[in-house]
């Protein structure tokens, strides 16, 4: 069980922190809430105490015998500040210690995650951006806010990311605290990444389609991880029913043809492309313009299917930047790991991508689940993979299991290593 200190600053988004607290508690973490005085104007201390099961105070002089301003920061495995207002970011960057929360921020030796939420003008102000840069320089993780509806009729960047997204990031930092180290944090800064997610659907008629079970969870986890590590993210989503990842640009598509059009549109400008979507391999040669009616119990329906374009292969063959890294996915069914890897190697050679993420599917695995197990197959020894043999094909890659958010960082680790060696 990890100990999380949840700091809550005084913004209207404070009410969303209650949902974040619930998710952290349901994941088995011990959570202590430290609000600011202004935060209690939005959500009262009784709410935080009831949801966390721990006492709540804003002052360093409450229970001085336990020295809370030192003890809470030292004991925490992770500090999350959500929402982090412009005022809180300014005080943290300046090293102020004028309430219990800012004292805890100065004594914490664990990773610190800030989730800003404020009006667009406040977020974009040079002072706020300078404070964010200062905190990141010191090793703090500051996520970019989402774009959307703010208070009143205003809309724009400055919205607090969804609680599920923040909880996922918090768990990753607990599992991999080194991601908050200054040497590795935001290691994708300055890179443009293109990610596909979800599964395409090919219409039979206006109400029926051929599709697959892909939920888009892996692609969205990849987008969250890339944003967290500083990349500029373009996400192409096919039939995904998930909230847009904060700070990622999202294009929505339905069919394989639409997915290919959008991927080719952005491919030339991308430094890394991850083709995690599951395009339908076949589509009906023609789609009916009206709903196909069942007219009798004996009626049969014959569909003539034609092959869809191979998007991954086209991305590879039309690549013009030799430094561009292309990552493919393979969902395979195999009776044992050896045959699974053989299938993955065959696809890696056939597609010509730089890295292949191999999944064993079926039996309720992978699709629609928050966790998975992957194997990473690297195309050549220049990638620096520890398991790449002399013949240039990846050898027996070990399986890595965990949440899709955690696995996303393993994928970015591998893709970043490949790019750094070019």
Description of the structure:
Keywords: Decarboxylase, Flavoprotein, FMN, Ligase, Lyase, Magnesium, Metal-binding, Multifunctional enzyme. Residues 193-422 are annotated as: Phosphopantothenate--cysteine ligase. Residues 1-192 are annotated as: Phosphopantothenoylcysteine decarboxylase. One of its GO terms (biological process) is coenzyme A biosynthetic process. The chain is α/β, with parallel strands linked by helices and 422 residues long. The protein folds into 2 domains: 3-180, Rossmann fold, CATH 3.40.50.1950; 192-284 and 301-420, CoaB-like (Rossmann fold). The protein is built from 13 helices and 19 strands. The protein has an 8-stranded mixed beta sheet with strand order 12-11-8-13-16-17-18-19, sandwiched between helices. It has a 5-stranded parallel beta sheet with strand order 2-1-3-4-5, sandwiched between helices. A hairpin with a 2-residue loop joins strand 9 and strand 10 (208-210). The longest helix is centred in the last third of the chain and has 17 residues, at 404-420. It is elongated, with a radius of gyration of 24 Å. It starts with a strand and ends with a helix.
Can you give me a brief rundown of this structure?
One of its GO terms (molecular function) is phosphopantothenoylcysteine decarboxylase activity. With 422 residues, the protein is of the alpha/beta class.
List keywords for this structure.
Rossmann fold, 2 domains
